[in-house]
Amino acid sequence: MASVVDFDPKSTIVVATGNAHKVIEIEAILKHVLPQFSFVALHDLGSFADPVEDGATFYDNAVIKARHALDSVGCMYALADDSGICVDALSGAPGIYSARYAGEHGNDKANNKKLLEALKDVDDAHRRAHFHCSIVLIKRECDSSVEQIFRGEGNCLGYIAHEEIGAQGFGYDPLFLPDAAQATHRSMAQLSSDEKNAISHRRRALEDLALKLQ
């Protein structure tokens, strides 16, 4: 097992991510309902292999990642999220396979190309889609068989463009035209970070989780 820096397991929530910006966003939204806790990224505590995300739903994969964090560092609290894009005309695909839709994990260009190809004969009225995020906070008692799972869900609604638009963001952002930006006809990849964070599926899932923790 990797070397882990000291932290108080009773007052620290380990976030299953290596993204420092994600931790900042999570803390900003949850701090008012969990003021006694600090938040730290799993990868700031050591070097750990990624878990196998073989769940059937976004929620299942979020639980897998949170439990992996709990097992890796022996903490009491872990938080994780899983997200992707779901297209109505494709019966919800790519869904949980969003990051590896074209076969290679994280190949954004290939994933976007495959999605455009799948929708090449679909008109504007039937290109509805949404980004979805499931987020979980797991509390594990000293007896590791006893867990409490708190769950938040969030969506960002919109539709799929006919070509990539914009250079910011990542993943499917250049193809996704959010309803919240419809007045300016911008894709998610044309929004500023603040604009994107304000309407994101992860923010809405965090806000849903915060309501359940009150």
Automatic annotation (TrEMBL):
<dbReference type="GO" id="GO:0009117">
    <property type="term" value="P:nucleotide metabolic process"/>
</dbReference>
<feature type="binding site">
    <location>
        <position position="82"/>
    </location>
    <ligand>
        <name>Mg(2+)</name>
    </ligand>
</feature>
<dbReference type="InterPro" id="IPR002637">
    <property type="entry name" value="RdgB/HAM1"/>
</dbReference>
<dbReference type="GO" id="GO:0005829">
    <property type="term" value="C:cytosol"/>
</dbReference>
<dbReference type="GO" id="GO:0036220">
    <property type="term" value="F:ITP diphosphatase activity"/>
</dbReference>
<keyword id="KW-0547">Nucleotide-binding</keyword>
<keyword id="KW-0460">Magnesium</keyword>
<comment type="subunit">
    <text>Homodimer.</text>
</comment>
<dbReference type="Pfam" id="PF01725">
    <property type="entry name" value="Ham1p_like"/>
</dbReference>
<keyword id="KW-0546">Nucleotide metabolism</keyword>
<protein>
    <recommendedName>
        <fullName>dITP/XTP pyrophosphatase</fullName>
        <ecNumber>3.6.1.66</ecNumber>
    </recommendedName>
</protein>
<dbReference type="InterPro" id="IPR020922">
    <property type="entry name" value="dITP/XTP_pyrophosphatase"/>
</dbReference>
<feature type="binding site">
    <location>
        <position position="196"/>
    </location>
    <ligand>
        <name>substrate</name>
    </ligand>
</feature>
<feature type="binding site">
    <location>
        <begin position="201"/>
        <end position="202"/>
    </location>
    <ligand>
        <name>substrate</name>
    </ligand>
</feature>
<dbReference type="GO" id="GO:0046872">
    <property type="term" value="F:metal ion binding"/>
</dbReference>
<feature type="binding site">
    <location>
        <begin position="170"/>
        <end position="173"/>
    </location>
    <ligand>
        <name>substrate</name>
    </ligand>
</feature>
<feature type="binding site">
    <location>
        <position position="83"/>
    </location>
    <ligand>
        <name>substrate</name>
    </ligand>
</feature>
<dbReference type="GO" id="GO:0000166">
    <property type="term" value="F:nucleotide binding"/>
</dbReference>
<comment type="function">
    <text>Pyrophosphatase that catalyzes the hydrolysis of nucleoside triphosphates to their monophosphate derivatives, with a high preference for the non-canonical purine nucleotides XTP (xanthosine triphosphate), dITP (deoxyinosine triphosphate) and ITP. Seems to function as a house-cleaning enzyme that removes non-canonical purine nucleotides from the nucleotide pool, thus preventing their incorporation into DNA/RNA and avoiding chromosomal lesions.</text>
</comment>
<feature type="binding site">
    <location>
        <begin position="17"/>
        <end position="22"/>
    </location>
    <ligand>
        <name>substrate</name>
    </ligand>
</feature>
<comment type="similarity">
    <text>Belongs to the HAM1 NTPase family.</text>
</comment>
<dbReference type="InterPro" id="IPR029001">
    <property type="entry name" value="ITPase-like_fam"/>
</dbReference>
<keyword id="KW-0378">Hydrolase</keyword>
<dbReference type="GO" id="GO:0017111">
    <property type="term" value="F:ribonucleoside triphosphate phosphatase activity"/>
</dbReference>
<dbReference type="GO" id="GO:0035870">
    <property type="term" value="F:dITP diphosphatase activity"/>
</dbReference>
<feature type="active site" description="Proton acceptor">
    <location>
        <position position="82"/>
    </location>
</feature>
<dbReference type="GO" id="GO:0036222">
    <property type="term" value="F:XTP diphosphatase activity"/>
</dbReference>
<keyword id="KW-0479">Metal-binding</keyword>
<dbReference type="GO" id="GO:0009146">
    <property type="term" value="P:purine nucleoside triphosphate catabolic process"/>
</dbReference>
